[in-house]
Design brief:
about 400 residues, alpha/beta, elongated
Length: about 400
């Protein structure tokens, strides 16, 4: 179903709700509507009638007093109004919807409820009309599955979140490995998932590609044929104010290699003495599990971390070797620790059970950083290689995941 058709469909649902009809009556079997919420007391009838969700994202979004929240596909405003209660007068809730009729209904519902800490925006979830790092929490209720560009939607959610922000949505997912795709599509259509759902694995991959870590996907309602409603949660890595941890991009090449070279120039980072070309750097490392710390004011990359496969043998599929470098002018700000913690969490999301590396004994700062992140020294490889003509020892360090 095309975007325009989806907007027209939801506009029709909004008009139904305005005339006293329950919008979900013609939606689909996957819609639980207002019945999916524990506390709808004092909400306007129009908001309840227009509820088209498959769960209660507000109940799992961990909202706090003063939070700024964005609801993707806010519909008649039920999640916006419930969130506004949670965040209180010092917080704010944005509702984003592509249907002008839904926005009109939602604004009427907010006015009827006497809620003033809300703002409803016209736009699409693939192009959110808010600046980056604006909100603390992104929620959504059975809407992301309607997008025909889910990667862009999740990337936008990551962009608008502040570092440390949370992503908590209800959505429709499909089990991995369902053989009968025609049966799956019929079930998705029956429950109102008109653009097709992501498999659990696809959802996890797109969240990781966007930069999210700490990903959990918990099936709730079973719709049959491997299709489920689910709660999806993730986070944007926390870091010091003025910085952001995000995936490494090809556009970062020059700055990543500059930080690399500055680290090599210290004489205590690696046996290498000259940073490689970007092609050599990139081809030697995994396409995922590579992140940077960027200064949000200038965009400058001031730290990076990346992983390499240790072996092509299947038995080592969950073992990687990593490197982490911080620009010497940006030390003592906790950036390296935040970046390494984000990398560790992302590696567990990716099913990595062992991270290993080598550290020169003289590099006491790196050793302390890694030990704080759960790495241990396995032993010393004595006089393993020459660096500027001097034979040097290397501490072998490793972190075993307690979760994988």
């Amino acid at each position: 179903m095309a975007h325009e058709e989806i907007v027209d469909r939801y506009s029709r649902f909004a008009r139904n709700a305005m005339t006293g009809q329950p919008a979900h009556a013609s939606f689909g079997e996957g819609c639980v509507g207002a019945a999916g919420y524990d506390d709808t007391a004092a909400l306007p009838d129009g908001a309840l009638r227009a509820s088209l969700g498959c769960g209660d994202p507000v109940a799992v979004a961990d909202l706090h007093e003063g939070d700024v929240v964005l609801d993707l596909g806010s519909g008649g405003g039920i999640d916006v109004l419930l969130s506004a209660r949670r965040v209180g007068p010092t917080g704010k809730v944005y509702g984003l919807d592509a249907s002008p009729d839904m926005l009109s209904l939602a604004r009427d519902n907010a006015a009827q409820a006497g809620v003033t800490n809300t703002e409803f925006l016209h736009g699409t979830i693939e192009h959110v009309p808010l600046p980056g790092r604006t909100v603390d929490v992104v929620i959504s209720n059975c809407v992301i599955n309607l997008s025909d560009d889910k990667a862009a939607t999740l990337a936008e959610a990551f962009r608008v979140l502040r570092p440390g922000g949370r992503f908590g949505v209800s959505d429709v997912v499909t089990e991995d490995g369902i053989p009968d795709q025609d049966l799956r599509r019929r079930t998705e259509t029956r429950i109102g998932c008109t653009a097709g759902s992501l498999t659990v694995g696809e959802y996890r991959t797109l969240l990781m590609n966007a930069g999210f870590t700490g990903i959990t996907i918990t099936p709730t309602t079973d719709h049959g044929d491997g299709v489920h409603s689910a709660i999806v949660k993730a986070g944007k890595p926390p870091v010091a104010p003025g910085f952001e941890i995000r995936p490494m991009r090809d556009a970062d090449a020059a700055q990543v290699l500059e930080v690399y070279q500055l680290g090599l120039d210290t004489g205590h980072a690696s046996f290498e003495t000259t940073a490689p070309t970007w092609e050599t750097f990139s081809s030697a490392r995994l396409g995922h599990l590579r992140y940077v710390v960027a200064d949000t004011r200038t965009g400058q990359v001031v730290a990076w971390v990346a992983a390499s496969r240790v072996s092509a043998r299947p038995v080592y599929a969950g073992v990687v070797e990593h490197s982490i470098y911080v620009h010497p002018d940006y030390g003592s700000r906790g950036l390296g620790r935040a970046l390494l913690n984000a990398f560790v969490t992302a590696s567990e999301d990716a099913g990595i059970w062992t991270i290993q590396s080598g550290v020169f004994p003289e590099n006491t700062a790196s050793l302390a950083l890694h030990q704080a992140a759960g790495f241990r020294v396995l032993g010393t490889r004595e006089r393993i290689g020459r660096h500027h003509g001097v034979w040097r020892d290397v501490f072998m360090i490793e972190r075993r995941s307690p979760a994988i």
